């Protein structure tokens, strides 16, 4: 029955003081037929988002607010918020109104087909071209690294069943990637086409450095394929070097006066040195993140709770 279904809305907030109150009001209006719970997570905003969220949580008893001590990143904030949800389904939505709250109902309707997770899909994305380019690159890499279905777009606007949320929050490392955690748990995933609106306030908080950081989290923390690539490339280069070595020896025996080229030697040294440094860097990323994990680096630190 619809009146027995509880929907939790998880909203990471970063510099969203101008929009978050309106977003909560519209979510409340559009989902008035459901038992509603909203979790706001302030991810170290530089504006007065925290004060606005405190006022909202005091105004509505169905709104929970968690303030983080600094900016940990969107995925860290979302993982923190997922620990507080109690609904049958959780919907993750950004604070910028680019996903109209009315589209939450579309995701709920799609979930009734029995899916564990429902991702949104857009006919036309209204993000900045740079953000769209980064998303396409991230999507292509995820297809290869995480065995993501090719037709699935990993949107931040999605619905997750409570049983799946319970598995996701078992992750205790400092570098969460929500979509990677979802794909670890289930492949029973649906897709629903929804509207994507133009940003009305401010600019996207995704900078080049944040996109690279997100990509590295996926690249290193959720797959060992980069290490396998290093092994395959190393074996391939060794095999090619062995074959070339035999060729050079035969060439020298047939033509004793042939002098080996200095240019080819330097190119080979520089190429192999570059390959070694790249793979040492990849290994260093794995070791560094493992070191931080073993040191107990938190994914987020809660400063205040208004429950």
List the helices and strands and how they pair.
Layout: E1 6-13, H1 20-30, E2 35-42, H2 49-59, E3 63-68, H3 74-82, E4 89-92, H4 103-111, E5 117-122, H5 129-145, E6 158-161, H6 162-168, H7 178-185, E7 189-194, H8 208-221, H9 225-254, H10 262-294, E8 302-306
Parallel strand pairs: 1-2, 1-4, 2-3, 5-7
Antiparallel strand pairs: 3-8, 4-6, 5-6
Helix pairs in contact: 5-8, 6-7, 9-10
List keywords for this structure.
49% helix, 307 residues, alpha/beta, 2 domains, eight-stranded mixed β-sheet
Structure description:
By secondary structure, the chain is of the alpha/beta class. It folds into two domains: 2-221 and 298-306, Spore Coat Polysaccharide Biosynthesis Protein SpsA, Chain A (Alpha-Beta Complex), CATH 3.90.550.10; 225-294. Helices cover 49% and strands 15% of the residues. An eight-stranded mixed beta sheet has the order 7-5-6-4-1-2-3-8, with helices on both faces. Strand 2, helix 2 (49-59) and strand 3 form a beta-alpha-beta unit.
